[in-house]
Amino acid sequence: MDISLQKVEYRYAAGSPFEKKAIEDISFTIPSGQCVAIIGHTGSGKSTLLLHLNALLKPTSGSVVIGDRTVKAGRKEKDLKPIRQKVGIVFQFPEQQLFEENVMKDICYGPMNFGVSEEEAKKRARYWIEQVGLSQEILEDSPFDLSGGQMRRVAIAGVLAMEPEVLVLDEPTAGLDPRGRKEIMDMFYQLHKKRNLTLILVTHSMEDAAEYADQVVVLNKGRKVHEGTPRDLFADAERLAEWGLGVPEVVRFQRLLEEKTGRSLPGVCLSIDE
Ligand code: ADP
């Protein structure tokens, strides 16, 4: 299932004195089965864009095509559940959304809310808890007795148990140490490869983008300023600094790309700040 944005604009509090244009003129397509990173500095519009990917926000103008559905400004939408099932979002610090008395109930909550039987939901919980690297024994525990890392995995299992075709990850490595970051990103990447799951990574980390994405979309001040492979992006190193993506990141990004491709890249401009 492809997702395509066509001239998307979104204004918060549209029509009020507090109106604020958060994104404008954004067009790009996320083809089925790809890993796409959406990167940008704080305030560049990433979160606003993310909420359009499963129709939690509707564009103020333009349209978002999600599989066979088009979400358009000024049109009343009926039954958005199929979209929400197909496009799962793992929000930042998802562990904060756990609330049930045990892990099993927490994972089953989403699927059952979408009409899946209790028996099937439990079956999925037993499957997905292992896919996120935890044992089935944990299903009877209270989520609040788990470690932070375990809680995050439980929350992710809850989104995966909806069996989405597209998984949107909002800063999935926020607050994790380097080892935890790698473990969680490798887990997502394996799911992406094994199940042909489309992965959309919304992040300010160029490292994650360089390491995992096929395509990178860069936002700056609410506009799309770049779209291409991580290598294409790197060729625009000077502009990365202009977009608030700093030189130390560019250098780390270069190193990562070199490690990944085994090839050295043309010299990076290190004098951006001069
Ligand atoms: P990012 O996720 O890249 O940090 P956001 O999408 O959160 O960017 O923000 C884009 C712009 O929209 C910013 O200028 C921000 O201040 C504004 N904005 C975000 N949320 C709201 C809101 N609920 N009401 C008004 N303005 C908002």
Automatic annotation (TrEMBL):
Lineage, highest ranks first: Bacteria, Bacillati, Bacillota, Bacilli, Bacillales
Pfam families (alphabetical): ABC_tran (PF00005)
Record-listed E.C. numbers: 7.-.-.-
PROSITE patterns: ABC_TRANSPORTER_1 (PS00211), ABC_TRANSPORTER_2 (PS50893)
Residues annotated as domain ABC transporter: 3-246
Domain of life: Bacteria
Family membership noted in the UniProt record: Belongs to the ABC transporter superfamily. Energy-coupling factor EcfA family.
GO MF, one annotated term: cobalt ion transmembrane transporter activity
Name by which UniProt lists this protein: Energy-coupling factor transporter ATP-binding protein EcfA2
Enzyme class, first EC level, given as a word: translocase
Principal localisation: membrane
Listed SUPFAM superfamilies: P-loop containing nucleoside triphosphate hydrolases
Location relative to the cell: Cell membrane
Gene Ontology CC entries for this record: ATP-binding cassette (ABC) transporter complex
Provenance organism: Jeotgalibacillus campisalis
